[in-house]
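Submission checklist for the structure archive. All mandatory fields must be present; incomplete records are returned to the submitter.

[x] Identifier: MFS family permease
[x] Organism: Marinobacter oulmenensis
[x] Residue count: 396
[x] Sequence attached
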Amino acid sequence: MTTQDCVTPRQLFTVLLAGGLVLLVVHTLGRFIYTPLLPYLVSDGQLTAPEGAAVATWNYLGYLMGAMVAIKWHRIDQIRFMLPLFLAIHVITTLMMTQTDNLTVISTTRWLNGLANGVVFVQAPALILEWLVARNRASMSGLVYLGVGIGLLVSSGLVSGTADWLSGAGRWWPAVVLSVPLAWWGVAQLRKLDIPVRQQDDAGEPVANTPLVDRASGPLFLSYAGAGLGYILPMTFLPLLAQMELPEGHALVDGTWVVAALFTIPSPWLWNKLGAVMGDLPALRLNFAIQLLGALAAVVWPGAIGLVLCAALVGSTFVGTVLLTQRIGRALHPHQGPRLSAATVALYGFTQMAGPWLTKQWLDNGGTLVSAFGIGVAALAFGLVFTFFVPRPASA
């Protein structure tokens, strides 16, 4: 009986659910919950808008550094040790956010939280992918990212549902309460996975790292850099922009994040399907074009129409960018595994860090938040252009 024959639908469901919950914890209850929280934290007087942008930058710096840690320690035996460690760090740092109003402490804590997010966001899907590959189920790996979309909706509900009876640092408590059981159960399931630690490749030769960036993959990495900078502005500042543009009490002040969440939930399945039907590279170009229109809508149509279009179009595409880019990268550089995933996440993390920093500089120099979204438009246009310089692998 082969390994493939041993896997059951229940096992597949449990593993994918565990991975999805782990990503939900670190990437939405850790990172993206800050987006709907930010307008409330500004209204509470805990932060100003420029300070909020600076705090976001510290979180993205940590995310970048976490991805770089994952590049260094990418073997399966290393992941088994580091995954529970950094999930614990995530929960502890989220708890710390409930205890302070000090800007320096908040920034440091969010940096460390981002570090944990970066490590886990690389290692959990990579671990699951290796398990699925051994069972000829690699095509199902993208379903792990459903946790991100569902988590956006969960984070929105946690923030809006407790908005009237929490304030300041206390607004982080719902994320803490939910993170603890989900992280514990998710990592407990992932640590059970039976994955051999490979010392040799399929030809029997010692496993060796090969260059990740060359003439084929270079344009792909550049396009991905544009995606990271382009999507992070709407996904960080959209609710704050809604609060600034719409009357007090308008449904879209919280509703823009709900729209983004609802459109994100089916996006991993959608872009996986489109990649299979039309090819990953054409699908990636379509993905960039739609995402570009979403960011542009917030600039061209200030107000409810632009906000809804931005939320819907960016929400429905940014996870697809991740899935398609990583799959194309694997086709260009086979057998890179977790190291390739870590490298793309690190690049994404660097450009995400640049987005809030550029926004802060723009606001500090008299610019408006809506005009700052133009930075995202330019970045996505840059990324779209470079997708046309990526060679099309046979499997993409």
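[x] Structure attached
Curator remark: Residues 3-196+212-387 form a domain with the Growth Hormone; Chain: A; fold (CATH 1.20.1250.20). The radius of gyration is 20 Å.
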